[in-house]
Amino acid sequence: xxxxxxxxxxxxxxxxxxxxxxxxxxxxxxxxxxxxxxxxxxxxxxxxxxxxxxxxxxxxxxxxxxxxxxxxxxxxxxxxxxxxxxxxxxxxxxxxxxxxxxxxxxxxxxxxxxxxxxxxxxxxxxxxxxxxxxxxxxxxxxxxxxxxxxxxxxxxxxxxxxxxxxxxxxxxxxxxxxxxxxxxxxxxxxxxxxxxxxxxxxxxxxxxxxxxxxxxxxxx
Length: 220
Fold this sequence. Notes:
Blueprint: E1 12-17, H1 21-32, E2 37-43, H2 46-56, E3 60-63, H3 72-82, E4 87-92, H4 97-105, E5 110-113, H5 118-129, H6 137-143, H7 157-167, H8 172-179, H9 183-197, H10 202-211
Parallel strand pairs: 1-2, 1-3, 3-4, 4-5
Helix pairs in contact: 2-3, 7-9, 7-10, 8-9
């Protein structure tokens, strides 16, 4: 799958998944006039979301959790099994910590409340398109309580440096600049960190770093 590269001429391709027509229409019109973004599809239930994702191959999916046929968590699992390069952000009015954490463990890269401002939603989409994580600070602190993984004793000093910067919300490019290495080297380190921690993605890795005290929670 071809990922969107920020700064390229290709717009970020967005799939909107929500069981309410008014919500889908509202997001469509909100994104319609935004430069560098295009809505390429929509779905009203989980099964349709999986089918539509395979059809239009989006860069980012805005995924509701409460869906008929197939809930947002299971739809996320099935989509990422077929299209691992897709970035999924949970967009819902439900702030049930366990549900959001389950979605993140299923591979979602972020969470945005439906009550968020337009600018926050757009920044979340751009971050997810880059492969970065996006999570509101207040929810980050609460979700830490759900993580029970062991400390990363197997990480090398450089991998711990990468993890610490990742937990502070740095992108791969920013991490590379701070450590004086290339983007490719950073991606390799991030892949190793995720594998050694046994987590699903960089967001889970960042939350784990906060939990074990590698980074101060004040960073969020």
